[in-house]
Amino acid sequence: MSSAIPLPVWVQLLAMAVAGAIGAATARERDAPVYGTLFAGVIVGLGGGMVRDLLLEVPVVAIQDRLFIPVVAGAAILGGLLGRRISDGSLVVITLQGLSLGLLVVIGSQRAIQLDYAMPVVIFIGMVTATAGGIILDAMTARHSAALSQNRLFASAAFLGAIVFWALSVTVGFWPATVVTVALVGFLRAGSVRWKWNAPEWPDSGRREPKGP
Hints:
This protein has 213 residues and is an all-alpha fold. It has 8 helices and no strands. The longest helix has 24 residues, at 91-114.
C-alpha cells in the first residue's frame, strides 16, 4: 500500500474549525445554553479525530498539539455568536460543511493508511472521523442522528468519499485522492440539499406494520 502524506496542520485546523462553527450554530439553533453551544462546537470539531486516534491506539493529536483546542473553541464561539446565520441551511454553508466533511474523511483515512491498515479499516476510520462529532451532537441534543437519516446525504457521502480516497491514494497518489475526495463529498452533500437527493433506503422502509400491542 502506498504511504500517505499528512495534510498540513493548517488544513486540518481549517476543516475542524468549520465543523466546530457549524456544530455550535446548530446547537444554538436547538436552544442549547452558552456553555452547551460552545462545548458542542468543540466536540463536533474535534470528536471525530479523537475517536479515530483512540480506535487506532495512537496519541490523540487534539490533546498533544496545543493549537487544536483553542482554534476549534474560537470557531465554536464564532459559530455560537452568528447562530442562525450559519444554521440557516443556505447552500453556501452546506457546501462548506460538505468540503469540511470531505477533508475529515481524508484526515481519518490517511492516518489509517499511514499505519498500514487494510482497506476496510481505512474506510471505516475515514467515516468515523467525518461523522462521529455530528453523531455526538445529535445525541447531546436528543435529535435523530443525521448519520442514520435517509434525508439527504451525510454518512453516505462520507462512505463514498472514503472508498474513493482509498482507491485513488493507492493507485494515483495522495494529493489527487485528496482533491477528488473533498470535491466529491462536498458536491454530494451540497447537491443532496440543492436537488433533494436522499440516502438509499430499503424497499419497505416506512411501510412496516407496527409490532407489539
